[in-house]
Amino acid sequence: NADADIFGLPDIVIQIFLGTGIAMILTTCMIGQLTTQVNASHCMIDYINNYFALFTLYVAMTIEFTGIMHSSYLIQNVLTALSGKPVQSNEEPRNAAQMLFFWGRVLMSLAILGFALAVTFEALFAGNTTMWEGVPEAVSVILFVVLMSVVGMLEGMQIAFFAVAKIPASERGNSFFAKKTCDLLFKGNGQNLPGFMIGRQLTVVTCFFVVARVTTLDIEPGQGNNVFGITDSSQAFLNTGLHAAVITTILASITWQLAASAFPLAFLANPATYILLVVALALEATGVASGAWV
Questions:
Q1: Per the record's keyword annotation, is Ubl conjugation included, yes or no (predicted)?
Q2: Helix crossing, 192-215 with 96-125: angle to 10°?
């Protein structure tokens, strides 16, 4: 609450940290994400040597089995066909029943994704989201697309950077921006790669806070303005934000990661990659998230 009285701080300080969401962004990054990433990078096997890690794995596998995100596999197949590289897998080839079950879940996932997007834009143009008042719907859509693309680029860059780190410099291509990106990323003692991870996380969380404004529904069930006229119970379910999770996971994360894994050098050759790397390193250099190293 930006109107709260906290430690007697001036209103301008409270407005900056609470009103804009900076406090929540820093808390989410340093406590909810970066700290665990730093610990995992150092502890590795010890980090997963507990029942909670096993429980998390089972939950993730269960969600994958439901097929909600299976449209990402369709994207993977398309990108694999474009790259000309076969998918490396230790699984046995699927039989007819397994193929039917797999592609059935892909179609279901596409339908869910389409419905989630329809709900988001219907609510947005009806003024039933938590987007700031006074922001035109067209601007909200542009922000949504741009920020989702920025997040996607950062997700893909993470995959591409680790893939390229294993490739000799002589095999990284002749692209001007690919060379500049690699020179900046691997210069000195190699601290720019973990530095990028911190700056990247700050940027991703900031973008998601704005995207959440666009995708979060502000509809009270029972008031007669349910999206598409659905039932109150269905509206209450959508108000949980699951549709937004589906959209962001598929369109702002998995898709770009798969693209980067198929075309890592193409990612490096993109001027936006170099620009975002500079931005991420600049954010990390400010030290606002250095508490994650404690």
A1: no
A2: 70
